[in-house]
Design goal:
about 300 residues; 6-stranded mixed sheet; 7-stranded mixed sheet; alpha+beta
């Protein structure tokens, strides 16, 4: 696995995401399957962990979980969490991103397959919790904690967070331990996975940590995994952004120069940097495999 740290297109250049490039593999252990255009099955090895059906009008999806999901990340101990200092800072997020990448690469239970991925401390552009209200209320509003069945109304909101197993109660033993870490500022991040077929985030690891943060009314630190755009698409985007930048600079160098040419040039440079950064961290659709079987193919006509 090749890794590249991505930084913000600002003067301080703080860490934003970890880009992963995976070689050809045998296929992920946590694998989405699709059938008949509107049915989704999420399996983990031989087990089925989630079944979903997209509404005929594409207005939402109904789902059912089986309680057979297992995290691809080994349990995170308090002593190990305390070793990663600087809670919430970009460098802290970067160290956890590399730890999660190690775990996902080594585990047969995760979703990674060949191609580019991004592990980011920023959620999708339309996936930022609403600013108003306290953290607990904001996260309860996006958390799909009905179990085992539920539905997602795509017209009601732009995103949700779907746990892959039952959320533990605030007084559960592991949640109590994590609640202390939430108060101490040593709570490790919750690992999410952007699943475009459901248009929501799935909780890959950290169900108890998320429950602890909500119980303590703290903003849970998160790292979001998603497929990245393929190089041919990002390359085309870079070419377009660079062409626009060069055209802008040629206009600024022309005979009718602006009064504040330097300011306009700086603005154009900032825009270019932001566009290139957005291409690096942009989500790509989640890959799904066709469900084996189905109707037999029609027989070929006799020669």
């Amino acid at each position: 696995m090749h890794r590249t740290n991505l930084t913000a297109p600002t003067d301080n250049g703080s860490w934003v995401a970890l880009r992963l490039e995976l070689p050809c593999t045998a296929g992920p252990g946590l694998r989405p399957w699709a059938a008949n255009g509107n049915r989704i099955v999420l399996s983990q090895g031989p087990e089925t962990v989630l079944l979903a059906t997209v509404d005929d009008d594409r207005g939402g999806v109904t789902y059912s979980r089986t309680d057979r999901y297992r995290s691809p990340v080994a349990p995170l101990r308090a002593a190990g969490a305390r070793e990663v200092t600087g809670h919430g800072e970009p460098s802290w997020c970067a160290r956890w991103a590399h730890r999660f990448a190690d775990a996902l690469e080594a585990s047969p239970l995760g979703p990674l397959h060949e191609g580019p991925w991004v592990l980011s401390r920023q959620l999708a552009r339309d996936g930022v919790p609403r600013a108003e209200g306290e953290p607990a209320g904001r996260w309860r509003s996006v958390l799909l904690d009905e179990h085992p069945d539920g539905c997602i109304d795509w017209f009601a909101g732009s995103w949700n967070v779907l746990p892959l197993r039952r959320m533990p109660s605030p007084d559960h033993g592991r949640v109590k331990a994590y609640r202390k870490q939430a108060r101490d500022g040593t709570l490790p991040p919750v690992l999410l996975w952007w699943f475009s077929g459901l248009h929501c985030y799935l909780v890959l690891d950290g169900h108890a940590r998320l429950a602890a943060a909500v119980a303590e009314n703290r903003e849970p630190p998160v790292l979001a995994l998603s497929r990245a755009q393929p190089e041919e698409r990002t390359g085309a985007g870079r070419d377009k952004a660079l062409a626009t930048y060069q055209l802008t600079m040629s206009v600024l160098d022309g005979p009718h120069q602006m009064a504040d040419r330097q300011g306009a040039a700086r603005a154009a440079s900032r825009l270019l940097a932001a566009q290139l950064h957005d291409l690096d961290v942009a989500h790509a659709p989640t890959r799904a495999w066709p469900v084996p079987g189905g109707r037999p193919a029609p027989a070929s006509p006799s020669p």
